[in-house]
Amino acid sequence: MAAASDSLALQGVDDAAADMRSSQADALYEEIARLCGTDEQGNVPHSCEVERPTQALSATDSSQVLEQAALATTEAADEGNSESRAIVTQQAITLNAWLPGGAPGIPPLSQPHRESAVDLLQWEYEQVFGLDFARAYSGPAAEGRIDKLLSLHHRRINQLHGALGHNGEIPQPEPAYSSAAATLPSDADSAAAFVDTLVEQDADKWHAAAVAAAQEKRPNQEWLNWLIGIAAQSQAT
């Protein structure tokens, strides 16, 4: 299994990445056991056995190993059992979050994905509203972080506008939003906590969107790739 081999190859080169790939391998072996069942000794049937490697050539460049793993895992996110795709999608998000660089460009939207895109656009509008509100109460030290987050969300909004504009009207933002994250801030301390909550919930939102796309009966690989990329971006923020 690639995750287990990567873990061995990364030991002593990038121990944090090695631990991450080892945990991912554990999750995949556990999923095999869940799907296949085990006997009284905890062993899976012979037809489901996947030998775990015990040695691998040491990597010379951890980024290359992770890039290959991210590519392969992202491509596999729409394969296999629908329930198992959630695990693979989460692993693809985590791997992409480890790598530098931005998310891929948004693909042309098919009509079935328009509803999801509209929901995500409204989410982005809400994030911008919340961040703008928090910025008004933040001290100078926090403004730089908020400005970076605002820039990121505005880029997503622009991407979604471009995609939605090809096959219908573009929903516009509401004058105001009641934040689902927490009570709106009223001073610098509450603003800092509010932004932390927004960031955490943003990662959850995009993760859920990617998993939902992966679990469709016939996933659209390009749309799924974009969602994984944005979810990774949110996780790395």
UniProtKB/TrEMBL annotation:
Record Gene3D superfamilies: 1.20.1260.10
Pfam families: DUF4439
Sequence ranges assigned to domain DUF4439 in this UniProt record: 121-217
InterPro entries: DUF4439, Ferritin-like, Ferritin-like_SF
Top-level taxonomic group: Bacteria
The name this protein goes by in its record: DUF4439 domain-containing protein
Organism field: Corynebacterium macginleyi
Lineage: Bacteria, Bacillati, Actinomycetota, Actinomycetes, Mycobacteriales
